[in-house]
Amino acid sequence: MADLQGKIAVVTGATRGCGRAIAVELGRLGATVYVTGRTTRESASPMGRPETIEETAELVDAAGGTGVPVRCDFTSVSEVDALRSGLDRVDVLVDDVWGGDDFIEWGKPYWESSLEKALAMVHNAVDTHLIALHRLLPLVAARPGGVVIEVTDGDNDDYVGPTIGYHVAKSAVRAIGRGLGVELAKSGCTGLTVTPGFLRSEKMLDIYGVTEKNWRDAVGGIAPPDFAISETPSYLGRGVAALATDPDVSRFAGRVLGSWTLMRTYGFADSDGTCPDWGRWMTEVREKGLDPATTDPAPYR
């Protein structure tokens, strides 16, 4: 991998999960990373999570980069304008804003769910991306070679739930990435979308009552058997770092790439040394109707 010394990266939604891991992996290659999100040590976001942008910036520093925490609510145009005013250029922009977890209504048909929650989910997950891109893309497109990466859930538009609002939000991000692939090419830059597989995020570990050290204890218990193929946020982070340093990244313009595809392309592993292949698991187990509870996960890691 080439390094990112002297490069400026902005990661939106970098407080936790994939955003945090992506920021750290970009920092590991020497980038100066603007770590943006809503939760600081002084002020929590409505998500109520303990992770902060300052912690992420410190992790970037520890990895070898320079972390710059900037509180920014991407539903606010004025706050994004303030972020932009502190930047001279952007070489790598990773758009990972989400903020929709609290609006998911599990097990309800759309017409019986809350319209207000559905609209709030789309607002937090789609409007934020459009606002961030409108204000920050000029700093990327000003010179050739920039990379813009959208982060979503899923590598195709098949409906898998859990709600129509969620499906709309994640599909819209994929659509944005396809559009970026066309528009940024005119400036000699590249736009695309990435997705993790079954993400073993901080929140997911908390939901299942396990830690990164004992996460396998939840498989087949409180967690579904598919959790055996889960991955850490660092897995996608390493894939994004590989894209950001790939001199031929333009071949992926407009595409949606899963962490598993990035792993096959660039040959990296997850932080535990395994290589979870969510794509193969879905194709060879789920789509063929095999019982994931009785399928050996080892060949898929």
Name the descriptors.
Rossmann fold; alpha/beta; 2 domains; 7-stranded parallel beta sheet; single chain; 7 strands; 301 residues
Walk me through what this model shows.
The protein is α/β, with parallel strands linked by helices and 301 residues long. It has 2 domains: 8-196 and 232-270, Rossmann fold, CATH 3.40.50; 202-230 and 275-301, no CATH class. It is 38% helix and 12% strand. The chain contains 9 helices and 7 strands. It has a 7-stranded parallel sheet with strand order 3-2-1-4-5-6-7, with helices on both faces. Strand 4, helix 4 (115-141) and strand 5 form a beta-alpha-beta unit. The model has no long low-confidence stretch (mean pLDDT 96).
The average pLDDT value, as a whole number, equals 96
The assembly state of the depicted protein chains is: single chain
CATH topology group of the largest domain: Rossmann fold
CATH architecture of the largest domain: 3-Layer(aba) Sandwich
Low-confidence segments: none
Helix/strand order? EHEHEHEHEHEHHEHH
Strand content: 5-15%
Number of strands: 7
N-to-C span: 23 Å
Organism: Amycolatopsis acidicola
Pfam families: adh_short
Protein name: SDR family NAD(P)-dependent oxidoreductase
Put the structure in a nutshell.
With 301 residues, the chain is of the alpha/beta class.
Question: Secondary structure elements and their pairing?
Answer:
Layout: E1 8-12, H1 17-28, E2 32-37, H2 53-63, E3 66-71, H3 77-85, E4 92-95, H4 115-141, E5 147-151, H5 164-183, E6 190-195, H6 202-208, H7 233-244, E7 256-258, H8 259-266, H9 278-286
Parallel strand pairs: 1-2, 1-4, 2-3, 4-5, 5-6, 6-7
InterPro entries: NAD(P)-bd_dom_sf (IPR036291), SDR_fam (IPR002347)
Protein name: SDR family NAD(P)-dependent oxidoreductase
Pfam families: adh_short (PF00106)
